[in-house]
Prior knowledge:
The protein is built from 16 helices and 20 strands.
Amino acid sequence: MNQRPETMANFPRRAALRLLAVTGAVGLIALNLLGEPAFGQTPPAAPSGRVVVGLSQEPTVFNPLMAKIETDDGVHFSIFDALFRIDPQGVIQPNLAVEVPTQENGGISQDGLEWRIRLRDDVRWHDGEPFTAEDVKFTLELITNPDFRAWRTTGHSLLRDITVVSPTEITWRMEEAFAPYLSFLTETFIVPKHVLEKEADPNAAAFNQAPIGTGAFKWGQRVAGDHIELVANPDYFGEGPYIERLVFKYIPDVTVLYTQFKSGDIDLVGNAFITADNYAEASNLPGRVVTLVPSPAVESIYLNLERPQFKDPAVREALYAAIDRQGVIDALYYGVPTTTETFLPPQSPYRNPDLPAQRYNLERAAQILDEAGWLPGPDGIRAKDGVRLSFANSTTAGHHLREQTQQFLQQTLAEIGVEMTISNLPAAVMWGEFWSQSQFDTAMVGITYQIGGDPDVTNRFHTRAIAAQGGSGSNNAQYSNPEVDALLEEGVRTFDPERRREIYYRVQELVRGDLPFLPLFQNTQVRGHKEGLHGVEANPNTRTESWNAAAWYWASS
């Protein structure tokens, strides 16, 4: 284990990191380190007050079924409901459904092919229309409509014979067993049939800019480039809401985001949270609750494998050896994150603990390139067969720690004859088609690979998930390995946990060997909110801080 310099730390950070190492994510949640206890406090009888959530990226996609990024999720979780939701302990709970179907209760047949879902009868859309099984059928069919730009079709494309038995019951048949589907449904928000069925083009529907859901909050207004305001739904069937207004404020510079948290202009720091270099100060701010939360997201350098310089495995291996990950963690992130070799988080029972550890070694990196025939040219930049070992790296403009990391890597790679230029973009541009259609050379990005805690990564690593090649998914590295494809296809048909563990251990081995992305670290989020704001709870199985905003409330004075 590398020693961290004492000058880089303070006692609270070291203590929290020791606790994290001993207890893991479950321990942090179980020990209630995610917020102060609300002794003597109860939610108000009627919604009151507002909460301002600061976000470093602007939510822009409001149809929850369309291609989106993590920052959109807070809006979706607040406006919409799914059939099920997943709690912080990884347990799937009913949401629009009255129970979670299982093979034991007869909701799912023993072969995993026949599904029966029973729905609540007390749910209404924000416009007053009743929610029924027709909405569920419409949603599931819209996702697989070839003319609709769906975010994710994996699993949904297997549904056949979707049948509305009654307003509160729906059945379908799976073409083949798909073990992760229940987890996928926790992130499949149901949309209103009576609104969207009238649209000739659902991709351009007015609904997409003023959505109507069944959730705890209704759409209020959006001031593009500044904020989104949601208002309480007093007729919500579930818990809450306890606040009148929920505001998502867009602050593109993470340093300004933290400054506004200190000044009190925002009540809660959302994605990308408080940067690690501000943790020591933030943890001592009066009137603030600041905690370390294990994150499922992995920060990486993503490679576009269709670029000629990255088709050579030796180049990927050399680049990985040339990254001083611990130096980045210690010098720039104050020791808060941890190194990783895989895409699954430490709390996952499917995480492979036996992957080879990266070793930073510039001499070895240069040797790998020499042996592979990548030799320095007249300008000092290596080249082979007319291809220069030069590429751009892109990420969100205004994220100062990522920008500092880029500069650090740029200088290091230059020492071995690799040219990395920096080309950063506003978030809306960076994470639009530039990212989703693999128009980048390399990208610095944090990704949560799991869906509802399930280890299936078909959406990220299967050949058919390469959107830039006509597929449907988020395989933005354009990674293709036939053995990985076959294992992923077996994994989603397998219900036995032990066999699934074997499958995903092997997938991790192959991906680690192929290096379609170069892991920098496993994120640990520094989260913060004002004292007096109750109900805030981290959920490592979702991508948003606002997954349970319906439960938030201000303490009475």
